[in-house]
Amino acid sequence: MAIQKPSIPKGTRDFGQTEMARRNYLFDTIRSVFRTYGYQEIQTPAQENLSTLLGKYGEEGDKLLFRIQNSGEKADLAPEKGLRYDLTVPFARYVVQHQNEISFPFKRFQIQPVWRADRPQKGRYREFYQCDVDVIGTRSQVNELELVQMVDAVFGKLGVRVGIHINNRKVLTGFAEIAGAPDKVVDITVAIDKLDKIGIEKVKEEMAEKGLAASGIAVIEQILSLQGGFEEKLAAMRGLFNGGSASGVVSETGLKGLDELSELFGLIAVAGVSAPVEMDLSLARGLNYYTGAIFEVKALDWEIGSICGGGRYDNLTGIFGLPDLSGVGISFGADRIYDVLVGLNLFPEALESSTQLLFAVMGTDELRYVLPIAKALREAGVAVEVYPEATKLKKQFDYADKKAIPFISINGSTEMEAGTVNIKNLSTGAQQAFPASELPAILEFLG
């Protein structure tokens, strides 16, 4: 049999020990912030019934679903299945399925992998983790505010400068109405969502291909070219939605979206959010289930696209038989955030090793001597390794160096007779002997 060269599917990755230490640091940081706002963790299966997923992400999203060809059941009896595309739709399914077991408003977070049959490229993977935080069962914009605050807190802890972009899907519906194409909201949204990638001229071409009239395209281009801060954009949009566009159409839906944005930005102003927050009229987010506020977050010092995104949805659970249950959430793109932290060298150096102290081994008697000491230190919370065999000290020092272990303990007959333990700081060279029974002194030396 020919030897097979090991490989993994395109768009996926292995994670070694350093990567996992960093990823856990990232996940733990995000979890800690979510919990301070009263959110608790759930998990859902990697696979869902295909009917649960189809039709929730738009035509383009449906094309990116991974379908499971053989689920081990009789094909004529089992429903088709697919790998989850995101965590929001499974969350909605979970809420409906468990509605009698949970209390509303229901606040949950979820950190799990999702899969998309996309073309792999920098910052875009076929298998990647999302960190979602959602609240469902209330329409209060205090929840939108909390999402903004959590974004601000997470990236403040990680040391990443970000910009938070906000729009409202009702405003986008207003675009279509004053452009004279109320039936083309989805087409306009999908095209605008590509603005950063393909530019305004290509966006206009795509809208024209979808049947939007030149006059309507001109109205949308006028909106996308608006400049200034929040109040200036808000005033300009109110004028356009009140019949001030070339079409003369009044958009009540668009005006309602502006009222929601005005309320949200007012809350943000008094809540002490540190990150810059911008009303971004070009922000569309192509997922069809959004009905209110929509969010995207971008790193200011590293080019990688959006690293968080989300929004308000009013109709998602209705698809599963529980109507009129509004929710809002945001997803932290863990893999992109990881790449930003690597690119900006923001991971703490201490993550490189989980082991704080290595006991070198000189022989069988020395091994037996240090084992109880290692046990006591572990019970005190110190990460300790005992080298598994008696070998040259150089090899054991090399092991500590490669694993970035900061302290080493070498104990021979002298230490055994005196009942002491000798510990060396490998970065400073400082070395000290302690009575083996004086655990507090050892812990203080280890820092």
List the keywords:
41% helix, Rossmann fold, 2 domains, BirA Bifunctional Protein, domain 2, elongated, alpha+beta, eight-stranded mixed beta sheet
What count of helical segments does DSSP give?
16
- CATH architecture field of the largest domain: 2-Layer Sandwich
CATH topology grouping of the largest domain: BirA Bifunctional Protein, domain 2
The whole-angstrom Rg is 28 Å
Count the beta strands: 16
Q: Briefly, what CATH class of the largest domain?
A: Alpha Beta
Explain what the structure shows.
- The protein has 447 residues and is of the alpha+beta class.
- The protein folds into two domains: 17-343, BirA Bifunctional Protein, domain 2; 353-446, Rossmann fold.
- Helices cover 41% and strands 18% of the residues.
- It contains 16 helices and 16 strands.
- It has an eight-stranded mixed beta sheet.
- Helix 13 links the parallel strand 12 (357-359) and strand 13 (384-386).
- The longest helix has 20 residues, at 17-36.
- The protein is elongated and about 95 Å long.
- The chain starts with 16 loop residues before the first helix and ends with a helix.
What topology does this entry show?
Layout: H1 17-36, E1 40-41, E2 47-49, H2 50-53, H3 58-63, E3 67-68, E4 81-83, H4 88-97, E5 106-115, E6 127-136, H5 142-158, E7 162-168, H6 169-178, H7 185-192, H8 195-209, H9 214-224, H10 230-241, H11 252-271, E8 277-279, E9 293-299, E10 306-313, E11 327-333, H12 334-343, E12 357-359, H13 364-379, E13 384-386, H14 393-402, E14 407-409, H15 413-418, E15 420-425, E16 431-435, H16 439-446
Parallel strand pairs: 1-5, 7-8, 12-13, 12-14
Antiparallel strand pairs: 2-4, 3-4, 5-6, 6-11, 7-9, 9-10, 10-11, 14-15, 15-16
